[in-house]
């Protein structure tokens, strides 16, 4: 877990604001779900996943309830859907902090932020396209140019189950050659063996059965419509039959946005897919759904690596230097802020020289200086700190307007 300081914190906020703009432009409304849920909400949807089995911050609260900090958004959004029964299609976006007890490393933390979008109540494959496009265009808008879109379909639940059995048989027959970790994964969830990045598993995985042989007509058509839609929008993608994703509930469309610059275990900037049975498993009516999440921390690392969407040092518009005791600075800053200008000042009765240093550091375009001469004349000096304009004395009554003009000119 990390502290996020200036200027990174403002960059995180801009990132979320940018996502909100993209999502709201596509008709998604914001939802804010609790940071803490009944652990069963996550438990029910991710029985066989590492996220739920090993990584939850789960504890008993003072009322004896079994609760967990959320490790992801989708389960909470589905729980909210069951609880509020909104009209469908229900298009929502959200952003915030999730917790997973993982081994921390670059791009992987125990507390991390995500932006997320979900659509409940329609199985139209064009919604899949809209979602994938939303995430894609958002990432492009940050300036990222090395992101690849991986696409797969896991078929209908029955097809997926048949595929899982085929993998169980196949990997079972080659268990002696698999890494110990993959043998353990196999017992829990054969699909996840496909995720192994261990070199000793690579050749065995490469020869494993692939999902497309298990598609029925409906899933084949769904997948075709998704691909045609992406083609129509000129969004480049790679069909990746081994893309299974970490959470267990996906059926049909799954996708992932992969960065080029991070270690391969941390190179997924985001991803998602369809989860048509999830609402039902939480006690709601059969309701198709699809969603994705993009990791804020990790995507900002990718932005660093591609030198885009950089953090900006915060700056004020004006800095007030007051050598008459500080009350003038108080009044001028107050007036400036109420007029919508960003204004700062020094405290503790510092010297003129020290205050000018602070003015330079503040990033202000203009210093407003009040000494005893100006105080008795009812004026202030306006001194441009950038460029080569001259300092001039301005009546206090005109001061804020003059500074505004200076900034806009
Ligand atoms: P997931 O919810 O596992 O599909 O993850 C979606 C995205 O969230 C990933 O692609 C990452 O960008 C981000 N993410 C997931 N887990 C972590 C973590 N422990 N630390 C940082 N980012 C994470």
Could you characterize the architecture of this molecule?
- The structure is a single chain.
- The chain has helices spanning 8-25, 39-45, 50-53, 74-84, 125-141, 157-173, 180-188, 190-193, 199-206, 217-232, 278-281, 296-306, 327-338, 352-361, 372-377, 399-408; strands spanning 29-30, 36-38, 58-60, 66-69, 90-99, 111-120, 148-153, 238-239, 251-258, 268-274, 289-295, 318-322, 343-345, 366-370, 379-384, 392-395.
- Strand 3 (58-60) and strand 4 form a beta hairpin.
- Helices cover 40% and strands 21% of the residues.
- It is built from 16 helices and 16 strands.
- Helix 5 (125-141) runs parallel beside helix 10 (217-232).
- It is elongated and about 90 Å long.
- The protein is α+β, with helices and mostly antiparallel strands and 409 residues long.
- Strands 1-5-6-11-10-9-7-8 form an eight-stranded mixed beta sheet, sandwiched between helices. Strands 13-12-14-15-16 form a five-stranded mixed beta sheet, with helices on both faces. The chain has a three-stranded antiparallel beta sheet with strand order 2-4-3.
- Adenosine monophosphate binds at residues 72, 100, 102, 108-109, 112, 114, 246, 268-271, 293, 295, 297-298.
Mean pLDDT score, rounded? Answer: 94
Largest sheet data: 8 strands, mixed
Strand order of the largest sheet: 1-5-6-11-10-9-7-8
Helix content: 40-55%
Tell the overall outline.
Answer: elongated
Question: For the CA atoms, what is the radius of gyration?
Answer: 28 Å
Distance between the ends: 44 Å
Q: What structural class do you assign from the helix and strand content? A: alpha+beta
Percent of sequence in beta strands:
15-25%
Helix count? 16
Unreliable spans are none
- List the bound ligands: adenosine monophosphate
Secondary structure tally: strands: 16
């Amino acid at each position: 877990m990390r502290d996020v300081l200036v200027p990174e914190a403002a960059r995180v906020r801009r990132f979320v604001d940018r996502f909100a703009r993209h999502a709201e432009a596509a008709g998604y409304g914001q939802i804010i779900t609790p940071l803490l849920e009944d652990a069963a909400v996550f438990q029910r949807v991710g029985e066989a996943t590492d996220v739920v089995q090993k990584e939850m911050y789960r504890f008993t609260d003072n009322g004896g309830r079994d609760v967990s900090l959320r490790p992801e958004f989708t389960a909470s959004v589905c729980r909210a859907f069951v609880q509020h029964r909104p009209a469908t299609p229900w298009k929502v976006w959200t952003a915030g902090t999730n917790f997973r007890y993982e081994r921390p490393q670059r791009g992987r933390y125990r507390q991390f932020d995500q932006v997320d979008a979900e659509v409940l109540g329609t199985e139209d494959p064009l919604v899949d396209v809209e979602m994938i496009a939303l995430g894609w265009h958002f990432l492009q808008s940050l300036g990222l140019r090395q992101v690849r879109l991986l696409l797969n379909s896991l078929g209908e639940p029955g097809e997926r189950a048949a595929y899982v059995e085929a993998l169980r048989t196949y990997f079972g027959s080659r268990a002696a050659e698999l890494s110990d970790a993959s043998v353990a994964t196999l017992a829990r969830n054969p699909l996840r063996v496909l995720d192994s990045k261990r070199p000793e598993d690579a050749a065995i995985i490469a020869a494993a059965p692939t999902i497309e042989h298990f598609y029925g007509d409906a899933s084949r058509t769904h997948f075709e419509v998704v691909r045609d839609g992406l083609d129509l929008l000129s969004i480049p993608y790679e069909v990746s039959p081994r893309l299974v994703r970490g959470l267990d509930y996906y059926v049909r469309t799954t996708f992932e946005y992969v960065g080029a610059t991070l270690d391969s275990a941390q190179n997924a900037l985001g991803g998602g897919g369809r989860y048509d049975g999830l609402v039902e498993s939480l006690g709601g009516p059969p309701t198709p759904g699809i969603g994705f999440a993009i990791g804020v921390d990790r995507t900002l690392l990718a932005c660093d690596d591609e030198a885009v969407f950089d953090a900006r040092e915060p700056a004020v518009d004006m800095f007030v230097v007051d050598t008459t005791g500080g009350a003038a600075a108080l009044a001028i800053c107050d007036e400036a802020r109420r007029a919508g200008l960003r204004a700062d000042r020094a405290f503790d009765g510092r010297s003129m020289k020290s205050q000018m240093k602070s003015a330079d550091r503040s990033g202000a375009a203009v210093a407003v200086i009040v000494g005893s001469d100006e105080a008795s004349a009812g004026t202030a000096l306006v001194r441009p700190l950038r460029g080569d304009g001259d300092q001039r004395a301005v009546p206090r009554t005109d001061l804020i307007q003059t500074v505004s003009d200076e900034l806009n000119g």
